Amino acid sequence: MKLRPLTGAHAVSEAMRQINPDVVPVYPVTPQSPIAEGFAQFKADGRVDSELVLAESEHSVMSIAIGASAAGARVMTATASQGLALMWELLPAAAGMRLPITMNIANRALSAPLNIHCDHSDSMGAKDQSWIQMYAENPQEVYDMTLLAMKLAELASLPAMVMQDGFITSHCVEAVEILDDKKVKSFLGRRKATFPLLDTVNPVTYGAMQLPDSFFETKLQQIEAMNEVNKQYPLVAKMLTKLTKRNYDILEKYKLNGADAVIVTTSSTSGIVKSAVDNLRKKGKKVGMIKLRLFRPFPYQELAKALEKVKAVSVLDRAVAYGANAPLYAETLQSLFSSVKKPKAQSCVFGLGGRDIFEEQVEKVFTELLSGKIQSLRYIK
Amino acid sequence: MKQQNNKLEKGAVVKGGTSVTNKTGSWRSLKPVWDKKKCINCMLCPIYCPENCIPVKKGLRLETDFDFCKGCGICAQVCPVKCIKMEREVCK
Question: What CA–CA distance (Å, rounded) separates A218 from A332?
Answer without folding.
Answer: 29
